[in-house]
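Open question from group meeting: does this chain pack into something compact, or does most of it stay loose? Before anyone orders reagents, we agreed to write out a predicted structure and look at it together. Recording both the input and the output here so the notebook holds the full record.
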Amino acid sequence: MSDVPATMSLDLNTILKDWPHENGNVKVRKIAGLDGREKLQLRVDLGVLQMEMIGRPDGQRPHNCESLLEYHQRRAIRAAEKGEDYELTPEECAELQQEGIQYYHRYLSLFQINDFTGVVRDTQRNLDLFTFVTEHTDRDELSWSLQQFRPYVLMMNTRAKASILLAQGKFGEAMSEIERGRDAIAEFFQHSNFPELVSKSSEIAFLDEWLEEVKAKRPLSKLEVMQREMETAIGKELYERAAELRDAIKLLKAQKLT
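Structure tokens returned:
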């Protein structure tokens, strides 16, 4: 006998019909949950994924912790306090990887709605996961099963951080962030068993291209405007104007140093 009232249907076709899947497009929306909290929904070809906005995306609290990662981190700390090593089993590594996929789906969804703070949080969480597994297993294949995704997650983390800075008009800081992310990916490959992948990395190529786009869009500073104007004056043999600009540039630089 079913526990579902006769007037209630579990059929999701109405929801799916009203929110159709589109090949090539990632569709995400926020909805109000029955518990009063916001939920995140991701439309995929076979249905809808619904996630919590904070905590573990499926809302579970394994071993009364926010996540399996937090649970194992706590156990590792207790082991270290006793002077003991903490070793993950292959099954535990697989469980942690599966949990990481939940956070992957959420940060991709958050990126689509420009929730870059959430993307930074979830990508950093998965980067911490990769590091933790590597530190607590001596089996290279288990470590690499997660570390192989580090370049992509670093790229997404960098995109989110730089996007926050660009929204604040901090072009210089955003460019520095992009450079840091690119260099971190290159360093990862150089210290891996596949250093040749630096020149083939799609993540590095994307960040390099984005960096050039940001440079092209960056507003010129007052100093840069004056320097270009001085170069133009020299080119037109307006030496008196060029001398005025040269003195003004020197004064501006001196003021920045004090």
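Observations to bring back to the group:
The chain has a mean pLDDT of 91.
The two ends are 81 Å apart (CA to CA).
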